[in-house]
Structures are given as structure tokens and as C-alpha cells.
Description:
By secondary structure, the chain is α+β, with helices and mostly antiparallel strands.
Amino acid sequence: MFKVGKYKKVPEAERIRVDNTHEPLVSQEVFDGANAKILSRRRDTTDNFVSIFSGLVKCGTCGKALGLRYWTGKRHRVYVCTTYAHNTKACTDHRIFYDDLYDAVLADIQYHAQLAFEDRDKAVALAVRMNDKAEGSKAKSSEGKLKQARKRYDEVTRMFDRLYEDSLSGRISNDNFTRLVDKYQAEQAQLLEQIDALERAMQEVRDTRQNAVQWADLMAEYAGIQELTAENLNLLVERIEVFDRAATDDGVEQTIRICYRFGGYIGERCFRARVLKHPSRKKGADNEKALLVS
């Protein structure tokens, strides 16, 4: 029993299942979509290993998928840019060891999940800020332009009213009246199109804020996560972008960028990447080589 810290396994035939007793973390559509992606992305390797990252890992330069390979000899799993693998001049040598990728993604999810759990408002603000930064402060820019467009539309409407009054009183000729009507109507049509586009942009910003709230709520449910699975990855993450490794005085560093479901690109994670020496290669030579898994 739960109160004494013990559990008793109940035979499946004696279990009672009651659906829809709790509010779901995500909609049924999102849940079914994530499971569908898992099935479609499943790739068994020659040693029956199934990567939980299938379909999620992309090259940070060309945007194409990274393929799972084996490092020669010791069978270390590594993701390599498929574009580079087919044509070394088409992209750079993007690669990341599976274990490095796993540790970096888990650490990033753990950090943001704990942040959302401890301070939901701060997590929401972070998501909004990062998305605004990525979109070039769309909200502030669109708001100012929308205000100007509406103001000008009101001015043109008032000009129309005065124009008809001047026409009726005879203060303006018919030719000038027709010319100005055409001019104001054309400007009104342009302003209406501009206002419509700006209102859509503002709605996208409001949707971003709503998505940020949904992202924070979802992440908070995973506070304390200790293991990545295909299921929780596909529920939390849209894509993972891998960038080139860079040599530093302290070793080799690598950066990944995670696009979260609902949250978008929240930030980047830089970590110390492993470098494995090929036992048959001379010192100073290229000391890593990958073999195709499947």
C-alpha cells in the first residue's frame, strides 16, 4: 500500500481503468501526433539499437537531418550531417556523439523544467523574450505601425467627408473631386491591407505568449526528470540543431539549440565535446572516423 511505502502488483484482469479523470498535459491531437512521429521515425540499427532522437536531430548549418553512425572500432555512436556525408563540399563536418547529445539535451530539459516548476512567470517571460528576440521584436514594431496606420486611415476618412461637402457647395470642381476620390480610395485600400497584416502579426505575438504559458506548464510537469525517452522527447521537443565543434584552450566545445514544442528556441547549450583517438592513426592526423549504421 502507498501509506506504508509498499506496492502490490495487481493482475491485469483485476485492474480497473478509468479514462479522462485528469486534465491532460497536452491535447489528444498533440499526444497522438507525437506517437505517430515516434513510429514513423523508428530506425533499427544492425545491433537492434533504436535511437530516441530519430527524426529530431538537424544540422545547424544546412538544416538537413543528422544520421546515426558508428565510430570505428569501439562502436561509439555518433550523429553526422547527411549532407556532408554525401558531399564534403556541400556542408561542414557536423557531428556529435550520441552520449554527448543525450547528456546535453537532458541537462537543458532539466534546467528549464525546474525553472518552470519553481517560477512559472519567469519561465513564461523567458520564452516570450527569446521568441521576441528571434523574431526581431515583432510585437513592439507591429504595435507602433498599427497605431500609425489606423491614425492615417481615420485622417483619410475625414478628408473624404470634407471632400463631399466641398463638392456639394461648389468649392471644388468635378474633375478635382473625381481625382481626389480615386486617390483617397486607393490609399484607404492600401491602409486596410496594412492594418489587416499588422493585426495578424499582433495575433501571432499573442499566440506566442499563450504558447509560452503552455510550454511552461508542460515543462513544469517534467521537473526532476532523470531519463530521456522517445515519448517524452517527442512531447517536449520539435527539433534539435547541432552546430560545428570548436577547439578551445580547454578542449573542444560544441553547441546545440533546442526548439521546444510551444516554446520555440529558448536558448543554446554549449558543452565540452568528447574527442576519441583512432588507435591506428598517427598523432596530428584526423583522429575520428564514422561508419554507417543502417
